[in-house]
Write a structure and sequence with these properties.
The chain has one domain: OmpA-like domain (60s Ribosomal Protein L30, Chain: A, 2-Layer Sandwich). 34% of the residues lie in helices and 18% in strands. It contains 3 helices and 4 strands. Strands 1-4-2-3 form a 4-stranded mixed beta sheet. Helix 3 links the parallel strand 2 and strand 3. It is globular, with a radius of gyration of 14 Å. Pfam families: OmpA (PF00691). This is OmpA-like domain-containing protein.
Amino acid sequence: IRQIFQNLKHQIDTETSDSLSSPTNVINMPIRFKRSQASLGASDRKALNDLAVRIKQSLAEGQVKIYVVGLAPDEPPGQERWILSARRARAVHEFLEHRLSGETTTGGWNLVSWGAGAPQPYDSRSRGTDDRTFIRIAIHRGH
């Protein structure tokens, strides 16, 4: 799975603008989990809600694939880091899925999530990335 995200990363330009107009956008979300936790706080839910609104206004349901990648740079290396990063990704996935499908029953929003452990070396070149980035979302049109 990590290789898939690396390939996706190498095929696109990182986009952090608000427009979502590129074929693929990678967004480093301003989500800050407490150490060893995967619960979303109020500011996290607001940021994700704002993103869901932008997605629904800018993109057509059923024509995009949304990848949610969880990271756990605050956890020591090992199996627990992978598990925590997956739990974080799943929390964001479920929140976005609920917000995006709130007005429709077709289920046309295609979301995929996984944990990637810690950020990889190439991540530091992405605008807005630091060791406190816990969630990265890639939105790809025309899957």
